[in-house]
DNA sequence: TAAAAACTTGCAATCGGTTGCGTAAAAATA
DNA sequence: TATTTTTACGCAACCGATTGCAAGTTTTTA
C-alpha cells in the first residue's frame, strides 16, 4: 500500500522545466501564457493525474468554491427539494454545497452562520429559523462582499438577494378560492408572525375576507408550529367552536393533513361541511383522500434560482474587480404560485 | 466599511510576546504548554475574536473537518432523514457536511467521489447509485485511510464500514406477513437487482414463499425504477393478469402508493381483494387511505450511526497514530426493521 | 539596424496554522 | 553546589497554489 503523494504543480513544473507560476497560470488559461505552453501543460497535468489542492487555493484566495446552506430542517419536502435544486446548479458549475440545519433555533442559526463564514464559503443561502428576529449575524457576509441569498423565509429589512414567492398574493388567492367555493366563515391556521411567509399570507387572507365583506374573526386565527399534531389540535379547537368554520386555510400541507384527519374522524364532509386548502403541494397533498387543494410553488426552482444568484454575483464580481462597486444589493425575485384545486375544496363542478 | 482583516495567531502572538507555535498549541491544549499560558492565550484569543482559519489548518494537515455525503437524491423522505441524522451528529462534534447527489447515475457517482476526495473530506458516507456495479472509485479513500461508510445501498464486496438493515429478513417478514393474512398469490415489485437492498428483499420474499409451500411465479415479479408512476404501471400489469395476485410486496412506499391508487381506481377492495405492503414508512404511508402497511426502518438513526462510525474512526486513528494498524475494516451494523401493520393488509381483527 | 512594443515566463513572497527539533529555564536529584 | 530531569516555549520549515513585479525573448516599428 503505497502512500503515493498527490501530484502538485511543483511536480509538473519540475518535469517540464517550467516555473510553478507558469503551470498555475497555464492551467487556468491565463492570457499571458502562450497557447502552446497551455496545451502542453494541460496534457502533462492530465497524464500525471494532477488534481489541484482546493485548500491551498482557498487559503491563498481566502475563499472556497463552497456554497453554504442554512435551513431549518433538511427532512422536509419543501426544504429537501430546495436543496436539491441548489446542489444541482452548484454541481454543474463546479461548486460544492455545505448544508447545515438550524432546527428552527435562532441560537443555532447564529452559530452556524459563523461556522459557514469560518469555512470561507463563497456564498450563502439561508432560509430563516422560525424564531429569528434579529439578522445582524449575517452582516459579516455583506461586509466581506460574500453574496447572501435569503430564500423563502426572508427578513424584511436586509438589503440583499431574496428569492421568494409573493406570499401576500398567495394568501389572498387561497382565501379567495375558498370564498368562491361558498365559504363564509374561513379559519386560518398559521405559523410564527415573525416569518414573512406566514404574516404575509395572513395579510392576504385578511384582505380577501374584507374584500368579500366577511368579518375577520380572531377566534378563527390560530397560531401554531405547523406540525401534523398541531394541525390536529387546531382543528379540534376550531370544530369545537359554537360557531365553527366552513373553510380553513392552513399555511402548510402537513398541518392541513392533520385538519383533514380530524374532520374525517368527526365525519365532517369535506368539502361540503368544511373546505380545506393547504400550502406547498407536498407529495401527500395529491395522495390523501380527499385530495388536498393547496398552493404550489416551485421548490426546486427556488433552489436553482438562489444558487444562480450566488454564481452570477461571483462572476460579475470577478469581472469588475477593478470597479469596486459596493452598492447595497436589493434584488428580490418572485417565483410563481398556483392554486392547485383538488377535492378538499371543490364544491362545484 | 472597513475591510477588517481576520485576526490570526500571529496577531495574538505579537500581542502576547509569544511564538505562534505556542499560541497554536495553547489553543488546543497541547500538554507541553503550561496551564497558565493556555488560559491566558485562550482569554486573549477570545477577546480578540480569533477564529482559526480552517483552510490553513486543512492545508497543513491535508484534511478538513468535513464529512462528505454522496447519495442518489436528496429530496426523498428516506434520504433527507438520513442526511438530517448525519448533519446532526456532525454538527455536535464540530464537523461540517458536504452533500452531493448522484441522481442515481454511476458516472456522476464516480465524479462526485473524486470531487469529495479532492475536497479533502475527512470521511465519506455513501449510498450507492441505482446502477453502480463497480465500486473501485472508492478505493482511494481506503488507501488514504479515510473512513468510508456505505449506508443502506451498500456493495457486497468492499471491506469497509456498512450501516444497513437486514434486507433479507425484512423481505422475509413482509412476505410472511402477507401470507399470514391469507394471501396465496403474492406479487413483488422490486428495483435494480444490482442493489443489495432489493436483491436481498427479494431473496427473503422467495424464501418466505417457499417455506409456505407457495410457488414462485416469475410473472408476479416486476422490476422497476420504483417511481410512483412505475408503481401504477406495474399494478396495471399485475391486475390485468388472467390469474392476478391477492397480495403485493412493494420495496418502497412511493411505488406502493401507486399500486393502491390503481387498485382503488379499479374498485378492488384493499385488503380483501389485494393486500399491500410497502417499505420505508414514508409520511404518506400513514396518511393514505387505507393506511399502508410497510416496513419501517430508522432513517435518522442510520444517518447518526454512519456519522458516528466516521467520528469514532477518526478518534481512534488519532490515538493510535503510532500503531499504524492498517487492517481492512469490515464492520457491518444492522439496524432494526419492523412490520408496521396498517389497513392495507389487515384482513383479520 | 537600433529602439520600442509585445509577448512569455520566472522569482519570490504570501495565505495562516502546524509540528519536529532544539534550547533555555525551572525543578528534582545527587 | 553540581548535575540530571522535567517543563515550557521558540525557531523555522512546511502544506500547495496564487500573483505582483521583474526580466528575458521575440516581433514590430522607426
TrEMBL record, chains A, B:
<dbReference type="Pfam" id="PF13377">
    <property type="entry name" value="Peripla_BP_3"/>
</dbReference>
<dbReference type="InterPro" id="IPR000843">
    <property type="entry name" value="HTH_LacI"/>
</dbReference>
<dbReference type="InterPro" id="IPR010982">
    <property type="entry name" value="Lambda_DNA-bd_dom_sf"/>
</dbReference>
<keyword id="KW-0238">DNA-binding</keyword>
<dbReference type="InterPro" id="IPR046335">
    <property type="entry name" value="LacI/GalR-like_sensor"/>
</dbReference>
<feature type="domain" description="HTH lacI-type">
    <location>
        <begin position="7"/>
        <end position="61"/>
    </location>
</feature>
<dbReference type="Pfam" id="PF00356">
    <property type="entry name" value="LacI"/>
</dbReference>
<keyword id="KW-0805">Transcription regulation</keyword>
<protein>
    <submittedName>
        <fullName>LacI family transcriptional regulator</fullName>
    </submittedName>
</protein>
<dbReference type="InterPro" id="IPR028082">
    <property type="entry name" value="Peripla_BP_I"/>
</dbReference>
<keyword id="KW-0804">Transcription</keyword>
